[in-house]
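Schema walkthrough. Field components (list of strings):
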Amino acid sequence: MDIERVNLPGIGMQHSVTTSRGRRLGVVSHHTGRRDLVVYDKDDPDSTVVNVALTPDEANVVAELLGTARIVERLAELNRQVEGLVTQQIAIPAGSPYDGRTLGDTQTRTRTGASIVAVVRDREVFASPRPDFRFVAGDVIVAVGTADGTNAVASILTDG
Amino acid sequence: MHGILLVEIGAIILSLGLLAALASRFSISPIPFYLIAGLAFGTGGVLKFDESESFIVAGAEIGVILLLFTLGLEYTAAELVGTLRSAAPAGLLDLVLNSAPGVAVALILGWGPVAAVAMGGVTYVTSSGITAKVMGDLGWLGNRETPVVLSLLVFEDLTMAVYLPILTALLAGAGLLAGSITLAIAAATITVVLLVALKFGHVVERFVASDSEEVLLLKVLGLTVLVAGVAAELKVSAAVGAFLVGIALSGPLAHTAREMLTPLRDLFAAVFFVLFGLQTDPGSLIPVLGIAVLLAFTGLITKAATGWIAAYRAGLGISARWRAGAALLPRGEFNIVIAGLAVTAGVNERMRPLAAAYVLIVAVVGPIAARGAEPLAKWITARSKPSLVKS
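Field assembly_structure (string):
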């Protein structure tokens, strides 16, 4: 599915997609955090017929209902906003000292400054894992921090 | 003595509040109401204000500075530079089509070339504030003509950055040499500010950034007024200086600064519009009314045509073209700012009532016409494609 992305100077961003059944949907992202969910006219692809304004919290709820893909967008946004911040996906290898241990045990945030913001297991995304989240070999964690910090996370998860 | 001063200021601000409430009830811009209030209070009007004059004059000046500053804040330097290339053809068309009526009227009335340049500005600029509000209110932000309309507004913004110093130089009656020096200074300043904003925006931001909103407010306001004052001393126009400070700030800081300064801007800009009305003799409106109506009518048609053509060039359908035209119609704050600059510098006194009447008409008719655009476009589409009409 192609996402069409247009800048709206002074307002924010306009994303739109066309579904396989030919309906066009869009999201207007305001700088203020407001999101407008829009549905385009069947006969006139330039015009919206439905327009729902969402607060940031409401938008998050809708996004969670629709799936977890929003976390990825949020990370990309973080990356754009803060120069020098990187996201890294790190697999927990078999034989890792943390296979079977919890996120809290790793103390990665204290030791590296980087944060583990999500864990992908069997194509399922666990957003914002809590300290008692238990890792299993094969999990892929998503770490956010400086390049040095996320590299340090990788070496901790591999070698302890 | 002091009591009377406070009574006058209080009465003015309170009546502006009541007028703004009325305007928001009909969801149109309050600017025409402020102008009418000024007309009612001022020269030859019903009421007289003497004590508060110096407050109003200083307040109006700060109002202009804040209007231009928040205009600069609206777009980041990257957006300005990025839009320049894609919007240039439509933007130039916009400039030519919409400044031509003003230039023509000034020349026909024999006001001279300097007044013609000023009148061109008065008829040209769309009010980005009113347009953005109209599009938001009508739920048009998701539509496909919205990026087209916005990029035209950004282009107008850039044009203002070049136009205002030229106008100021001309108004100062500068000769060819002095004029070109002023222009060179202005062009250099704009280039430097754009460069600084693009490359070193974070340095400026670090200077003003603060966790305390109070500190941020005072720093930003102080910096803006200071730069505006220095620009005025350099004969580049205070308005341009403030505009450039706005462009130099971007990112989250710009967002916070806008939130904090918008209430101040609303207050002082209202004072500016009132002053413009105050200085306009209501009696002088009548002789220029015919020209103003004609100019407003032409201005509505040329703007609608601009939007229509820009949307057509972007490959959009009929309804989107009509909406783009309608969205661009409203004129407002900057047309009055330009007329104010010109009249203060001694250009033909009749420009004041003409600009006031022009903005009064267009700022009211624009948003109303925008509401009618969609039904009109539907009706036209239905007529031209009878096969699609359900029977």
